[in-house]
TrEMBL record:
Keywords: 4Fe-4S, Iron, Iron-sulfur, Metal-binding. Residues 1-54 form the 4Fe-4S domain. PANTHER family: ACETYL-COA DECARBONYLASE_SYNTHASE COMPLEX SUBUNIT GAMMA, PTHR36214. It comes from the Archaea. This is 4Fe-4S domain-containing protein. InterPro entries: 4Fe-4S_dom, ACDS_complex_subunit.
């Protein structure tokens, strides 16, 4: 445990979904879990990443089952953030379009069919569609007084991320996946519309999995 902690960035930023690096270290089971930390792939930590992978153990076999925690359904793969990003990119459409939102704003919203309220930072805007990085619940921001705009109920249109564990899909496949930072570890479904290496785009997102 101490060896792992000494090699982690030590920022306690919460980007991995845990309050502290110590909590993150305690749940590491396979090298793929290390990809939840967005800082380990930066040049200054690349050597540490190799050492951590050796400590955590051999890479998980391709046939490893990925099962959603909340629903017990089997997924095809885990979806991690794109390189040097804090979460997968989500593309959302608010049902109430009256709120004025700008790039850089923080928003609070609830995805359609999800019981959990999300906090996110807007990184791009198209007419009616916001591209966001998930940044909360509040404890992951390390503060309780930050300002946000209330969007209410939103439809999740697409995800962009990187396959970290499981089967790499092909364009046109309907897939089941779990976003690594999903607070409920819920299996999502959708259709793959773009693949570049391990980076993929999934559209037609649905929380009802057949």
């Amino acid at each position: 445990m101490s060896d792992i902690l000494s090699l982690l960035p030590g920022y306690n930023c919460g980007s991995c979904g845990f309050r502290q690096c110590r909590d993150f270290a305690a749940q590491l089971k396979v090298p793929g879990d290390l990809q939840k930390c967005p800082f380990l792939e930066r040049d200054m930590f690349r050597e540490n990443l190799g050492k951590l992978s050796a400590i955590v153990g051999a890479e998980a076999p391709a046939e490893e089952r990925i099962v959603g925690v909340i629903d017990g359904l089997e997924a095809d793969f885990m979806l991690a953030p794109l390189r040097d990003e804090c979460s997968c990119r989500e593309f959302i459409h608010p049902f109430d379009g009256s709120v004025e939102v700008r790039v850089g704003d923080y928003i609070r919203y609830r995805p359609l069919a999800c019981p959990v309220t999300h906090f996110a930072k807007v990184i791009d805007i198209d007419p009616g569609i916001y591209t966001i990085h998930l940044v909360g619940p509040l404890h992951r921001l390390g503060r309780e007084d930050f300002k946000f705009k209330e969007l209410g109920l939103c439809m999740i249109l697409a995800f962009e991320g990187r396959v970290s564990r499981g089967k790499l899909p092909k364009v046109g496949q309907t897939v089941r996946f779990v976003p690594e930072y999903c607070m409920m570890q819920k299996v999502h479904s959708g259709m793959v519309v773009g693949v570049e290496g391990k980076d993929i785009r999934i559209e037609g997102i649905d929380l009802k999995v057949w």
